[in-house]
Amino acid sequence: MTVSAADSELSPPPDWDSAVTVDARGLPCPQPLLAMRRALGDYAAGTLLQVLATDESSWRDFHSFAELSGKPLLRAERRGDCFYYWLRAGK
């Protein structure tokens, strides 16, 4: 399952493979979301982050965070038992 949103029609598409990885696999809810929030503040604005999680609740949590915070979830995928989320750091 994949969900994507373009950064902007004027900017080039993100280089998904160059994203900084935040590995939250094996962490229970809400730890993957907290790891992502910490990383959003740790990196320069515009840095592409990829968060890895294995907690089933992370799918709901990341989508809810994006909706409530206004921070776009650029892409979300499930590959086997791992969830992948891409966001940009900064405001």
TrEMBL record:
Family as reported in the entry's similarity comment: Belongs to the sulfur carrier protein TusA family.
Residue ranges of domain UPF0033 in the record? 22-46
SUPFAM superfamilies, A to Z = SirA-like
Highest rank taxon of the organism: Bacteria
One Pfam short name: TusA
State the name under which the record lists this protein.
tRNA 2-thiouridine synthesizing protein A
Lineage in the entry?
A: Bacteria, Pseudomonadati, Pseudomonadota, Gammaproteobacteria, Cellvibrionales
Name the coiled-coil region(s).
none
